[in-house]
Specification:
The protein has 231 residues and is mainly α. The protein has ten helices and no strands. Helix 4 crosses helix 5.
């Protein structure tokens, strides 16, 4: 086991091309999905936090349910959509990073929307009368409410990143785990461990943990700065 760790550190020290390629694919897919999930999830969370309409409770329950949906189910659904007989089959996105981004966007959006709704709803209770007295249109209210809670919302975005970058099932099904194309850190770790290539699996695991740790440290630093500046 010690030898495997030493070999893993050697791969990282020499910036092994295979490791770098897998890491870059993972970051490309996960960060793009996180961007789309944030752009969709935050406004949706603001809408649910501030507006009352028929079916709102059903949507909230649905989002809370989707937060914990097994990723393989999302993978199968996206696979069916992107397959040749599916409604998006003509796009040719199956077994490509684009298809993987679609799958991870469907995973991150409900999580970010549900968490942001809870955060924004608390702020809305405090500022509701002020916003209504200003007679701002809905989009303006959403913008200012999100801006007011921007530091707290980093938690929702961080959760979305963790959901995306640590996911295995959906990207395995939709991406196919193709070498030099759709192989991500999580799918490569699963494959290389089953093959007995522990140094490569450990090297990728170290990188994955480092990325999550850096994201958490960044979020913590942002919140500390906000608390010092705004009390």
């Amino acid at each position: 086991m010690l030898t495997a760790f030493e070999d893993a550190l050697a791969l990282l020290a020499h910036l092994d091309g295979g490791v770098l390629g897998i890491v870059l694919v993972s970051l490309q897919v996960s960060l793009t999905a996180l961007l789309f999930g944030t752009l969709i999830g935050l406004p949706l969370g603001a809408l649910l936090a501030t507006e009352e309409f028929t079916g709102k409770k059903s949507i909230v329950v649905g989002l809370n349910t989707l937060m914990g949906v097994p990723t393989v189910i999302v993978g199968v659904l996206v696979y069916l959509m992107l397959s040749r007989s599916g409604p998006m089959g003509a796009w040719g996105w199956l077994f490509t990073p684009k298809g993987m981004i679609v799958a991870q966007t469907l995973l991150t959006t409900p999580l970010i929307a549900a968490l942001s709704r809870q955060i924004l709803e608390d702020s809305w209770r405090i500022h509701r009368d002020t916003f209504l007295s200003l007679r701002l249109p809905s989009m303006a209210r959403f913008k200012w409410l999100i801006w007011d809670c921007r530091f707290s919302l980093t938690i929702a975005v961080l959760a979305g990143l963790a959901r995306a970058i640590s996911e295995v099932g959906a990207v395995m099904i939709v991406g196919g785990n193709i070498q030099n194309s759709t192989r991500t850190m999580t799918t490569a770790i699963a494959l290389e461990t089953s093959k007995g290539d522990l140094p490569l699996a450990l090297a990728l695991g170290i990188v994955l943990l480092a990325i999550v740790l850096l994201a958490n440290l960044f979020t913590f630093a942002v919140r500390q700065v906000a608390e010092r500046r705004y009390g």
